[in-house]
Every structure is written in C-alpha cells, then in structure tokens.
Amino acid sequence: MEMDEKDVAGLIENLNDPDWDVRNYIADILVKIGEPAINPLIKALKNDDLDIRMEAARVLGRIGNKKALTPLIGALKDEDVNFRKQAASAINKIIDKGTVPK
C-alpha cells in the first residue's frame, strides 16, 4: 500500500471516529502501511484530541518500531492517566517484539 505522509495524516485525523469499528479499520490500515505511518503517528501523540492520541499510541505499539519508543516515553508525562496507560502498553509491545525471536 503506497501512501505519503499527507494521506496517512488524513487517516490519523479519523482515529477519533465515534464508531469503534471505523477506528479499528483505520488502525489496521495504518499497521499495514507500517514504516511510512510512524512519523505522522508520532506527531499525533501530541494532538489536542485525546482519542487521536490514544489510537496513535495503540497503533505505534502494534507496528512495533523502536523509533516510537522515545516519543512514547515522553507521552508518559501526559496529564491524562488513560493516555499514559496506553503509551505504557505500546512501549511494552514494542519491547516485547524486540525480544521475541522470529
């Protein structure tokens, strides 16, 4: 799936859809996009919309790229406890992916 950062940013802006199925579908697409989605997802960790921040952290955890670790660690300072938990979960997933043999 060939997409640039502008296309990815458009998908990310819809991670706050009230329909969980839509959010999950977009998350699945972003995971399939993989590497090109990482920088826009990292930017989304600072979005004003909590839902977008939460989903960005979740997707980064699913992608599992270590490039996201430092921004996710920074997210642990966020004022929202649920977002901090989501960031911690994503960090754990990334670390686990790095230690499990393929």
From TrEMBL:
It comes from the Archaea. SUPFAM superfamilies: ARM repeat. It comes from Methanobacterium paludis (strain DSM 25820 / JCM 18151 / SWAN1). Transmembrane segments: none annotated. It holds the Pfam family HEAT_2. This is PBS lyase HEAT domain protein repeat-containing protein. The keyword Nucleotide-binding does not apply. The keyword S-adenosyl-L-methionine does not apply.
